[in-house]
Amino acid sequence: MPNLSIGEYAFPGPLRDQLVAAIVAGEKTSTSSLVAEYVDSPLPKIGDREIVVDSNNQHVCITCVTNVSVVQFANVPLSHALAEGEGFRTVADWAAEHRDFWQSREFQESLPQPISITDHTEVVCVSFVVSHIF
């Protein structure tokens, strides 16, 4: 198998396991991250593949990126929020949940520098398909 990057969703624990299960089930076909997370690495691009791991660092599946866009937090489209497979019904639901996560102490400490989440914060919206399940 080629040397693929590792895809970690949220932090190890119940949320990660919920997200990984939704990916495998085909319910989660998009994800969001902050441009600020990519200080030392390039943004994802169409065709990128990664091995998704669960909370035990076990390989679960391989995903392939099908679309990437960078938008302001306030402009994330409803179609993207729905495709995250987390039960969001509105962009406001998506925004509230993501704002809480991205402003959490654990997330802020994972960044090179803390960031305030505003309507203008740049969000990386990635769509993907599962290409292999382990």
From TrEMBL:
Gene3D superfamilies recorded: Sulfate adenylyltransferase (3.10.400.10)
Record's InterPro entries?
A: ASCH_domain, DUF984, PUA-like_sf
SUPFAM superfamilies per the record? PUA domain-like (SSF88697)
Record domain ASCH: where: 9-131
Q: Which residues cross the membrane?
A: none
Q: Name one Pfam family in it.
A: ASCH
Highest taxon of source: Bacteria
Know the name of this protein?
ASCH domain-containing protein
